[in-house]
Amino acid sequence: MSNVQLKEYINEKVALISDRLAVYADVQEVPDTLRNAMAYSLLAGGKRLRPLFVLATLESFGKPIEPGIPVGCAVEMIHTYSLIHDDLPAMDDDDFRRGKPTNHKVYGEAMAILAGDALLTYAFETVCEAQAYNIPADSILKIVRELSSYAGARGMVGGQCADMEGENTRLTLEQLQYIHQHKTADLLVFCVRAGAILAGAEERQLALLTRYANNIGLAFQIQDDILDVTGDEMKIGKPVGSDEKSSKSTYPSLIGMEESQATLQRLVDEANEALTAAGLTDTSILRALATFVIERDH
Amino acid sequence: MSNVQLKEYINEKVALISDRLAVYADVQEVPDTLRNAMAYSLLAGGKRLRPLFVLATLESFGKPIEPGIPVGCAVEMIHTYSLIHDDLPAMDDDDFRRGKPTNHKVYGEAMAILAGDALLTYAFETVCEAQAYNIPADSILKIVRELSSYAGARGMVGGQCADMEGENTRLTLEQLQYIHQHKTADLLVFCVRAGAILAGAEERQLALLTRYANNIGLAFQIQDDILDVTGDEMKIGKPVGSDEKSSKSTYPSLIGMEESQATLQRLVDEANEALTAAGLTDTSILRALATFVIERDH
């Protein structure tokens, strides 16, 4: 798949996801401020990378992507709530996100906490919308369980916790990997597994796709670390070198830039090997997304 | 059912719930601080009133209570997370809860936010544990949807939001009812509906039980308002008159004490009428719990 084709694919699917998110964000019978605070962050843009992996996984099995749309939107709700809470003064205390004032800067801390709670809760109802596409209830329940697990204490929240506790200390590579694994990779693993479960994957395929997604998730975070050193402030929307200023441990600071680049490449290669072994119908998009992750500049 | 019998019933069932919560709180592969912060609030005691309604509803259909235990525990996770976030400095800024320092006083604000997020997320995995008792996947999915709805922006979080926005202003009775409805009643409605769904209730019974639970939830909150004026500080674990001090609107302050007591009684009477109309096997416990709510002194 060429770069142009991939960009077209991404634009088309991101539009699908964004349109559906706008529908979900227009939640009825809710206090106006709460609805506005939820929509402000949910519709603030962003790469919508995670839902793309749900849809691309369904395509890799030769299945229709529609049931993946609510599931992908649910993941964006989880991702968005985690950013809102992460930006709070008690956490990272960030004033800007994607070039806009953070949620609590606009709506106040209390409302930002509640908007985050509401988005997190809403994600589970949204996942269940996949029922409208004749997905067996058993499969959706499995997805509910996995979303709870990968997004919760054993997953993303655990990663946030370790990240916070590791601030202002020099981490070991093992600790940094734990943080990357849970803070970033777990949600991506969920996306690929959810797409595969919707597609009716076998356990063997689920295991291989988990390896694929896990590697891409780790690669994504290493690329984030690298971009923080080399990136252009306008493109990533936060001050370049901000991690370094707060003496945060990163891949480049722990193992050097060259070794970080090599690790990134190795992770992507192994991801592609796992894809091949899974014996899917058409892995071109999943493969292109893997490459996209390490070639992006923001 | 006599008071002594009810107390025995409550003690026995609260022990069941507490034991299971202790198992769930011992969550593995999680950073120690996060696990401790989650367990600190989840196992801090409390009346466990909500899970009792799940179990009592199953009994009212003559069904075994076991599938209600994970569902009841999930509700306690939701209730507990809402208290942790509600106590935060940006929200109610409370230092004590149930006679113990609040979560953020012990673990810091950032960890309290994450522990709340983790408990909220965990609730959905926990609901799915009802699958172990041969409950159809369709029924559990319906419960997942309802938990998300009653606990989220249209439900409890919406109520919290309205409550916060109404602080330091004199509310109308209608606004106060909205807050009571969503902040308190919605979660109780969920409990009774979830018990009924687990029991395989018909839609007509679900509607009547919803009216029962809604009334009891509103009565519970009016009793809370009344206790805040008349209660004993030791028993309710927070300073008596604290709502009045912060110029918070309450039933007694809006319609007077006598009218508040009358409303309370009317709500309970109507709840009992709905119970009768539902034609259940044995409503003695649900009836006794209704009375218990308005006779409790803390």
Automatic annotation (TrEMBL), chains A, B:
Q: Which Pfam families match?
A: polyprenyl_synt
GO MF terms held by the record: (2E,6E)-farnesyl diphosphate synthase activity; metal ion binding
Which domain of life does this protein belong to? Answer: Bacteria
State the top-level EC class.
Answer: transferase
Query: Record's InterPro entries?
Result: Isoprenoid_synthase_dom_sf, Polyprenyl_synt, Polyprenyl_synt_CS, Prenyl_diphosphate_synthase
Q: Which UniProt keywords apply?
A: Isoprene biosynthesis, Magnesium, Metal-binding, Transferase
**So what does this thing catalyse?**
isopentenyl diphosphate + (2E)-geranyl diphosphate = (2E,6E)-farnesyl diphosphate + diphosphate
**BP GO terms, sorted:** terpenoid biosynthetic process
Q: According to the UniProt entry, what is the EC number of this protein? A: 2.5.1.10
User: A Gene Ontology CC term for this entry?
Assistant: cytoplasm
Q: Which cofactors does the annotated protein need, by name?
A: Mg(2+)
Q: Which family does it belong to?
A: Belongs to the FPP/GGPP synthase family.
Question: What protein name is recorded for this chain?
Answer: Farnesyl diphosphate synthase
What is the source species?
Aneurinibacillus migulanus (Bacillus migulanus)
